[in-house]
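Our collaborator T.R. sent over the components below with a one-line note: 'Predict the complex.' Nothing else. No constraints on interfaces, no templates requested, no preferences about which chain binds where. So this is a plain run: every listed entity goes in together, and whatever single assembly comes back becomes the starting point for the next discussion.
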Amino acid sequence: MRTLLCFSIFCSFAAAKLSYNGFKVFRIENKGSAEELEQSLSSINSILLSKDPNSEAFDIAVPPDQLQAAHQLGFELNTVIDDLGTVLENEGPFLTYIATEKTQGVAADLPPLSYFDSYHPYDEHIQFLTDLQAAFPNNSDTFSLGPSVEGRELPGIHLWGGTGKGVKPAIVWHGTAHAREWISAPTVEYITYKVIEEYQGEDSEIVSILDNYDFYILPIVNPDGFVYTHESERLWRKNRQTRDSQTCIGTDVNRNWPSHWNVSGGSSPDPCSNTYRGEAPGDTPEIQALVAHMLDLANGPGIKAYIDWHSYGKLILLPYGYNCTALPDNYERQMSVGTGVASAIASVNGLEFRVGPTCTNLYQTAGSSTDWAFDVAGAEFSWLIELRPTAAEGGFVIPPENILPSGAEHWAGVKYMFSQL
Ligand SMILES: [Zn+2]
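Returned assembly:
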């Protein structure tokens, strides 16, 4: 849709970093159909951020020169962020991560927890995974999938317990499918750190879980988009795929999984939309790599649980996204465990995460990771977790002081899940 086209303002900044000074974030309550609202919004130059799960409201970021036009659309615009540029300043500056010292043949110390005091560029995430592996040399490997459109790896770490590598059913975690959801990677990395730390500390529950399941963890599955959010447009969502005869760049990788791929209403056929699904199911290199990896696991030891970590909205989303009446055949069990996970999360900082099927609790999504992982890869649990916060609390853009609390919340959440597997 036109809202998301590479318009002059965004195109002109393609080579430089886009400033969001003076951008306002508005929430628009949707009184009619979502399609009509999106159509109206397409007449102005704005960025669609998210649809609110409760009210079908839309959050949009509007640049200063479009404010008047936005007000003339006739919607009630509720300001949730007065100046996005100011909020962005609170994200940084990045603190440089110093790699852990290593001695040949000796397990290194775990990386310092100060890593989680800041957001980090792509390369430092790879270094962090390398350092986690060095601290857990007999029970982990780093690996990479890909390459991405621009030739980057999708970095991962594989953890296993006392029974050896690759024989137990898999727990798979993905982060940063959507490039701008920065809280996702460090949250996944924190809970990975905790699995290793508590296994080494001989915590009986964690020893048991790692002895019974192998973990395959990829904190950044959309590396090109992620790098682009650092270098050019902080609020970029899609990958960076170009296609012949298309001017707009990027496919929404979480609408490109080869499952219920083009169900009407769950994604966009418009290359300029933020939810553009691609031209064919699984036609992004990132999803092809993830599909191949997960099918290997599904056809080998099997996949017990899959979690795709996103932000924002404080939600635990189950299948299905493509259809609001279809339910997974183990719906009761997934809901029961999900409700327990939400309680465990709430016990840490009091944040309430809502649990339910994606379509009825967020919005309709076609070609999504969780529908695919449940239907095709056979994951018994297949969830998308929308991390903190809400739009009014910053949306995608929240200070790094949120990283450790987010990590602690979801460490409590996954520990509850482990207890139920
Ligand atoms: Zn997302």
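Summary for T.R.: Residues 2-89 form a domain with the Alpha-Beta Plaits fold (CATH 3.30.70.340).
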